[in-house]
């Protein structure tokens, strides 16, 4: 015995996964709506089996939260939630079934599961956008966008995805990742490290307005 802890041993794995287990246990209690001894004990058993038998893969990208950028991103999230509701309501009231929408393909420049997921969530609350599919290998996201009446509005929607991606990298990534994002943007002719709906850029992607366009 050397006294060195085995990182793959059960005690180490249990300590590493306890936050996940605690969250699942709280979720179990909330779903049952009870704090009876039976619910608590059964929840512990179910959570323990789930965590040990179906472990989540390790997060390979370490998050470096930048508080100021994270707060700014949260503010943007709230603004987008309101803007999204207003955009959809406007199109429904003014155009109704004549409102034009499209399914668009937008490139992603980040290359970690964590940042891609965060970008997709932020894109989902962009006014008039809904994420349909994430192509992890191709680093692309497919969105349903409203309104899309011409190619310019399609590019503007792609620009929103690029802007969401930049916000995520600013708030949840390292300086090196930010430099890499800017380098790829310059390489592929993308937008600058700013905001707006005009600078989505292409990463070898795009299908001249999306996979398809239709009326809603």
Helix-strand layout with pairing:
Elements: H1 10-32, H2 37-53, H3 67-94, E1 100-107, H4 113-124, E2 129-135, E3 140-145, H5 151-172, H6 175-187, E4 212-215
Antiparallel strand pairs: 1-3, 1-4, 2-3
Helix pairs in contact: 1-2, 3-5, 4-5
Explained architecture:
The chain is α+β, with helices and mostly antiparallel strands and 216 residues long. It has two domains: 10-53, no CATH class; 67-215, no CATH class. The chain is built from six helices and four strands; from the N terminus they run H-H-H-E-H-E-E-H-H-E. A four-stranded antiparallel beta sheet has the order 2-3-1-4. Strand 2 and strand 3 (140-145) form a beta hairpin. The chain is globular, with a radius of gyration of 22 Å. Residues 1-7 and 190-216 have low confidence and may be disordered. The chain crosses the membrane at residues 25-56, 68-89. Residues 188-204 have a biased composition (Gly residues). Its main location: membrane. This is Na+/H+ antiporter subunit E. Belongs to the CPA3 antiporters (TC 2.A.63) subunit E family.
